[in-house]
Amino acid sequence: MTEKFPVSNAFQTFIQEAPEQQKIWMETAQKLGAASKLDGKTEELAYIAVLASARLEGGLPFHVKHAKSLGATRDEIIGAVLVGLPAVGNIVIQALPVALQAFDND
Fold first, then answer.
1. Percent helix, percent strand, percent coil in the chain, to nearest 5
2. Torsion angle of C-alpha atoms 84, 59, 44, 92, degrees rounded to 10
3. What is the mean pLDDT of residues 88-103?
4. Residue 6 pLDDT more than 90?
5. Is 4 part of any domain?
6. What is the DSSP string of 37-81?
7. What pLDDT, on a 0 to 100 scale, did the predictor assign at position 1?
8. Residue 62 contacts residue 15 (beta carbons within 8 Å)
9. Based on the structure, what is the number of domains in the chain?
10. Which of 15, 1, 76 is nearest to 46 (CA)?
11. Which domain holds residue 32?
12. Which residue in 46, 58, 76, 89 has the fewest CB atoms around it within 10 Å?
């Protein structure tokens, strides 16, 4: 999956240097995803909004590519990034170039 959806350098280091913790992390994330009542595309869009609001741009390329593969449009990606604008302010606009570059580059 990392080939189709590139992960950040930080996450790649996590995979390589702490494989046991990474395995536990992924198992937990998969269980949380399975428990979600959201469809996959909506969940990815929500996650993109959280990443933008938390200033975690490193995770955006992976999740934007995944959202796109689930049918998300460019406008939906922009909307997801900007949804936090009223709550957290213009910090979310820093995520726009990263998200759009990931969406536009196949």
1. 75, 0, 25
2. 10
3. 94
4. no
5. no
6. -S-HHHHHHHHHHHHHHTT-GGGHHHHHHHHHHTT--HHHHHHHH
7. 43
8. no
9. 1
10. 76
11. 9-104
12. 89
Is the pLDDT reported for residue 79 higher than 60?
yes
Taking the alpha carbons of 14, 19, 24, 27 in that order, is the dihedral positive or negative?
positive
The one-letter code for the residue type at 60 is L
Give the residue among 60, 61, 58, 49 at the shortest CA–CA distance from 86: 49
Report if residue 3 sits inside a domain: no
Instruction: Tell me how far apart the alpha carbons of residues 24 and 22 are, in angstroms, rounded to a whole number.
Output: 5
Q: Is residue 92 part of a domain?
A: yes
| pTM of this structure | 0.86
CATH number where 97 lies: 1.20.1290.10
Q: Is residue 2 part of a domain?
A: no
